[in-house]
Amino acid sequence: MITGTGVTKTYKQRGDVLGGRTVQALRGVDFTVRKGGAVSFIGESGCGKTTLGRIIAGLETYDSGEIVINGVPMSALRPRRRQPYFRRIQLIHQDPYSALNPTRTIHQTLRAPLTLRARQTRRSDAWVDDRAEELLSLVGIDPGYVLGRYPHQLSGGMRQRVVIARALTVDPEMLVADESVSMIDVSMRLSVLALLKDLRERLGVSLVFITHDIATARYVGEDGELYVLYRGQVVERGGTEQVISAPEHPYTQSLLSAIPVLHGLEQPGPERVVPTEALDERHPDAGCLFARRCPFRTERCEAERPALRRGADASHERACFHAQRRSVIPVEAVA
Ligand SMILES: Nc1ncnc2c1ncn2[C@@H]1O[C@H](COP(=O)(O)OP(=O)(O)OP(=O)(O)O)[C@@H](O)[C@H]1O
Questions:
Q1: What ligand 1 atom has the least distance to the C-alpha of 180?
Q2: Which of these three, 168, 200, 216, is where a domain ends?
């Protein structure tokens, strides 16, 4: 299990040669991923989801906040002592072209981490090769066909499966799949998603899924939790089905609504939300980060930042002074 409390991350703005300009990628994010659970982080480009995924996988530092893995606060450990904890959390690279070393056969690619694992767990050399075959079968490819080949001799789908098999060499507790950087095509994406779901069921690994696509989050984590990120802040979270079927934050509503119509409401709907406004971080908002794009904003929204609060349903939280159920026509209704 991993929890994050108040995780913040600020980058120097890219291309800002004089320095001083910063981007707040994460502004105090709290999250929990339970053992065997599935959590999806969704939001539009730049909301901080890739940064969060990399922090969870131990590949990115954070400025403040705390990450606790299996009860151990990472702040209490020196960076080197944190490695064994983060090693059990594996980021699945979604670009199978660059994720594998082109000069190594698949056998060599799997053998290196498995040899290390064998030493750690006092297993024999014979185990290394058996395990390589076992992992390839687990991800649905024929070991006899791929072991002696190089990445360029395999299809993209096979390469992606090898990447997942390699992540499994360390017996991970958690897989973090960042689809927002995905280079794979649609049919391959679907089979990879199905495989990740299957691995979660069969191995009991937890799954963190990073995407901008609600339908994907729903497919992968239907029994899990959904976090909606907006400009580095969690604006809504709860059970995936709960959030999707009864979104209460106007931003989530806008992500979900395919047709710019709201039924039975006098108020303007989230269809008025400006889809991509250039946001100027030099004039930070005192109030709600979504206020400038929100059709329901009031003076209070511009002056005060809403925190995540529970609504009528105890397992569902949203950061909005005007949170309420509003009916939206779901994306799949018009797909
Ligand atoms: N290494 C970096 N240096 C400077 N700024 C960065 C860096 N990495 C991310 N950022 C900025 O931090 C913000 C969050 O980026 P992040 O990649 O986490 O968002 P994202 O939601 O995953 O977006 P996308 O879906 O486009 O990958 C963005 O404004 C981005 O430009």
A1: 25
A2: 168
Domain membership of residue 69 (yes or no) is: no
Find out whether the beta carbon of 46 lies less than 6 Å from any atom of ligand 1.
yes
- Ligand 1 center to residue 49 CA distance, Å? 8
- How many angstroms separate the CA atoms of 67 and 297, rounded? 33
Q: Which domain holds residue 287?
A: 247-333
How many structural domains compose the chain? 2
Helix, strand and coil content of the chain, in percent to the nearest 5, comes to 40, 20, 40
**Per-residue pLDDT tens for 198-232?**
999 999 999 999 988 888 888 888 899 999 999 99
Residue 14 maps to a domain = no
User: Considering the domain boundaries, does residue 35 fall inside one?
Assistant: no
Choose among 50, 45, 41: nearest CA to 229: 41
What single letter denotes the amino acid at residue 48?
A: G
- Final residue in a domain of this structure, among 153, 168, 183: 168
Domain-located, residue 240: no
Burial of 56 (0-12, 13-18, 19+ CB in 10 A): buried
SS3 235: strand
- Mean pLDDT for the stretch of residues 235-256: 91
